[in-house]
Design a protein that fits this description.
Layout lengths: L1 H9 L22 E5 L2 E5 L4 E5 L6 E3 L16 E2 L11 H11 L11 H14 L7 E5 L6 E7 L9 E7 L7 E7 L12 H14 L6 H6 L11 E2 L5 E4 L8 E6 L6 H17 L12
Parallel strand pairs: 3-4, 4-5
Antiparallel strand pairs: 1-2, 2-3, 6-7, 7-8, 8-9, 9-12, 10-11, 11-12
Helix pairs in contact: 3-6
Length: about 290
């Protein structure tokens, strides 16, 4: 169960908090070290350490609570996670094992985030079968205009493509469903080992936007949509646009739902429409130039 707990806690940390070395996958890398007390479990692999329960001796600290509450205002880089971990966040097997090891969770006073937890769990349950082997990373304290999941393409694809799905807002728009299909800007690397994935994603973007048979061009039903540096509105629920690379913005699809109603169904509709584009990402494309 230690490995299962590590993998679940890994999914709680912001993608930007992943170390500069090692993989992005939730499975532990290298030797896993576990330290237990009556009130906490500290678990560590070659990349990061986690603690769940009482104490602070880890890179990422998660409070074991009977309720889903906001622990702090963030944004913080590691330390105590912004949201508590409740039994509802874990599989029945991990929940039972954890309770046996460190006891029942306690009720913590604070602003409830149960509604958000439920929505994000429902989004994942609905979309995960549509995105096999993609990895899920919670985003709740790094960006001021969204909360949700960053879903990363499988590591074996050598790609930096992600889907963000959750809630978004800004000064002009109230909170509603938010979905992005995006890649890293050409040449901008968070880690040196991303260079090849970044290069290949540039070629994949050319293929996706190809005016003859590109999957996004077929979705637009307009082979000239990339010739104009502006959003191209799709005939889908809500406000959903394709953004051509000429805009200098790196989501290729940007979508907001019309309201807070039926967000899970709305997101599933968008991801279903993206399936032809997603299906091309596992292919290593070479021989064409980004320029």
């Amino acid at each position: 169960m230690e490995r299962e707990l590590f993998a679940r806690l890994w999914e709680e940390i912001d993608f930007d908090d992943h170390p500069l070395t090692g993989g992005h996958q939730p499975e532990p890398e290298g030797e896993i070290k576990v330290k237990m007390t009556p009130n906490s479990i500290r678990i560590e692999d070659d990349r990061l350490s986690f603690l769940i329960g009482e104490g602070n001796d880890a890179d990422s600290v998660h409070r074991w609570a009977a309720n889903d509450v906001r622990m702090n205002e963030g944004p913080e880089r590691m330390g105590v996670h912004r949201w508590s971990i409740s039994p509802q966040c874990l599989t029945p097997e991990v929940r039972k094992w954890l309770t046996q090891k460190i006891g029942q969770p306690r009720v913590i006073d604070g602003e409830s985030v149960e509604e958000y937890r439920t929505l994000l769990a429902n989004l994942r349950a609905r979309l995960e079968p549509m995105l096999p082997r993609w990895t899920w990373h919670l985003e709740v304290d790094n960006k001021t205009d969204r909360m949700g999941w960053y879903v990363r393409a499988p590591e074996s694809w050598c790609s930096l493509f992600t889907i963000f799905v959750g809630l978004g807002w800004n000064t002009q728009i109230s909170t509603r469903g938010f979905l992005l299909f995006e890649r890293a800007p050409p040449g901008e690397l968070d880690r040196p080992d991303e260079a090849e994935a970044n290069r290949l994603d540039g070629l994949r973007t050319v293929a996706l936007c190809n005016g003859h048979r590109g999957a996004l061009s077929l979705l637009a039903n307009d082979m000239e949509w990339t010739s104009r540096p502006q959003g191209f509105k799709l005939s889908l629920p809500g406000d959903v646009e394709l953004w051509p690379p000429s805009m200098g913005r790196w989501p290729l699809l940007h979508g907001r739902s019309s309201s807070m109603e039926d967000i899970v169904d709305w997101a599933a509709t968008i991801v279903e429409e993206l399936q032809p584009a997603i299906s091309t990402l596992s292919t290593t494309i070479d021989g064409i130039s980004w320029h």
